[in-house]
Amino acid sequence: MLKDYKGACHIHTEYSGAGIRIPDVITSAQEVGLDFVILSDHNTFLPKQDGWEGWHDNLLVIIGMEASPIRDGHFLTLDPNPLTDSGYVYRRKYKNMTSVECLDDVLCSGGTTFIVHPLGKRKWSFIVNVEAWRNWEHTGFVGIEIWAYMHDWIDDLKLSNLWHFYKNPNLQLKGPDPELLSLWDQLGQKRKVVGISGLDAHYKEIPLIKRPLFAYKDLFKTIRTHILVEHELSKSDDAVRLVCDAHKEGRCYVSFDLLADATGFHFTAESGDKMYYMGDEVFNIETNIDFNISSPHHATIKLLRNGKTQRECEGNSLDFSSTEKGVYRVEAYIENRPWVFTNPIYVR
Ligand SMILES: [Zn+2]
Ligand SMILES: [Zn+2]
Question: Which ligand is nearest to the CA of 12?
Answer without folding.
Answer: 2
